[in-house]
């Protein structure tokens, strides 16, 4: 009976992952002529086809070398300039507190965030995490335009902590093992004011 319960739970988790990936519409890199570059068209929040996503089981780290080119300079002319965009991350799947209307990464997950800072003329980098649906966001560093930068999220299951780059750890309390990678997203509230290009090399 116990074995059947575990098998049933495992089947549910795997089914949720496959359904999630189906609806994400992730397109493999080999279909692109320049696969490291991910593009968000003007007035969109994310690429037409999701990129750089996939299934993860008990991930210890998600990391990539990322380059923001000059298209990542923008001026929204409002307080939305301070909103965080997202570049790499992960969301954990399967939970009693998971509403069908909520994206799993907005319940339990962590992402590296970014935004153009007109005062410093640099890209701010941040931690953007959800724990039980509660968001935490703060700056962890910065980088320059056209400067390849290693971004990472470490997951410590013993301490139950996310650590985005060298930032302060964010405590979580779930026991989830199944996750998926999240990709490039602009916003915040407003969509990209023009075409945005980011190089993401895993």
UniProtKB/TrEMBL annotation:
Top-level taxon of the source organism: Bacteria
Protein name from the UniProt record: Alginate lyase 2 domain-containing protein
Source organism (scientific name): Siphonobacter curvatus
Lineage: Bacteria, Pseudomonadati, Bacteroidota, Cytophagia, Cytophagales
